[in-house]
Fold this sequence. Notes:
This is ABC transporter permease. This protein is mainly α. About 75% of the residues lie in helices and about 0% in strands. Mean pLDDT is about 85; it is low at about 330-335.
Amino acid sequence: MNTLAGTGRLLRLGLRRDRVVIPVWVAVLIGFLMTTLSSYRKLYSTQAERDEYAAGLDGNAAARAFFGPVRDASTGGLTAWRLGMLGLALAGVMAVLLVIRHTRAEEEEGRLELVGSGAVGRRAPLTAALLVASAAAAVVGALAALVLAGEGAGGALAFGLTWTAGGLLFAAVAAVAAQVTENARAARGIAMTVLGVSFLLRAAGDASSGARWLTWASPLGWLGEVRPYAGDRYWILLLPLGVAAALGAAAYALVERRDLGAGLVAPRNGPAAAPPRLRSPLALAWRLQRGGLAGWAAGFLVYGLVIGGVADGVGDLVGDNADVGEVLTKLGGQSGIVDAYLATVNGLMGAIAALYGVQAALRLRSEETGGRAEPLLATAVGRLRWAGGHLLVALAGTVVLLLVYGTAAGLAYGAAAGGTGGKVADAVGAALAQTPAAWVVSAAALALFGLLPRATQAAWALAGAFVLIGPLGPMLDLDQAVMDLSPFTHVPKLPGGELTATPLAVLAAVAGALVAAGLYGLRRRDITP
Length: 529
């Protein structure tokens, strides 16, 4: 049989299964890009203002570490700087999740064995998965280039190609990771570790003038060296694309040499009996989700350190630009530029923490469709205890992420400002104020799982909409009635604003009602594999 037989059918199936997930990823990435471009156009309308802003950024090591060096002070150049690395990281995450979902996850669940028993070639599933991820990366890159085309076609094309190349590269990384282990979670962990190490190497190289070689040791560093709007060095794209091709070839070779369902690394046998700490639904939920929470917490820690390190210099970056100060105050609060800046970022981090809550809550659906929930529920474990364990991990994990971010931001801000004082306590309190709004999003995901299980993927679309409407709504000039739909709109703007308990209590009550609705629906419906 042709080893690629059935690829077309599997590709159509994959695109159909991801008809919600891929548009959400595209909408979030392009939404951030459009918002950032619009902000720079409004806030820095003259070249002198852009030059002053870029000069302040280039002297900030924390900004260089997270976003890279500013190489061009045009509107397009600043937009490419602001979203270059962030977009590459997100495009990489998207590609990793898509490839693992259609390869190792399908194999682990046993569905790939059923598909392979038909007229399907050995390489067809991996090829279809890579094509799905490549199509998503190509769409993101093309739309990004289209958004920036008004700032210069050459720079826009270079920027879009970096996003696409990043997606292709980490799709290939995920393809290899899917062959290494028998577990989808472990495969995601391997690929995400590669992505994280690449980001850290690039950050260390860009932040240090004496260790620039670290930038060239990172695939993300290569893509940053394409320099959209500052030379447009297209030839550098050959490096990540060449590595992607080599990794893809390695993945195909490994597919041919391993058994279906097996990985290169054999799993270790577990103990014959579980210790007491694992003999409850909550303990099982924690065991299943602790790795994901650790990865999210590491990201929040790094971002908190960067935000706190930059905060003390925000006033210098704003300079005499009254428009920037007005927008920051509008977004974040009324008590100084730094407080307004921190409040703005807090809202965004609360929305991102809600994405973790959605992921953790929807683990219930993957356990159900994977056939692992039914044997568990056939024992003395009830549905509410089972769901409650995962829900508690989702809600408590959201608190942990915001606590990690707030602590890191407060410590870094205090160190940059010459003394922590009460900055850590203020930063932690302001971050934790986002908790009830993030809980509303997680509770909405649980409500969909209980009442409309086939529509659970819509929780991602809802979370993405809240990210755009709440923290970024004022920059998009959205109508207040639209902004009020997001729970993050109703959170007090801290630090700097007045802490009022009423909106937080109302949001907590809404989250409680959604949880109750979801659990009620779960008790009354069938468990469907």
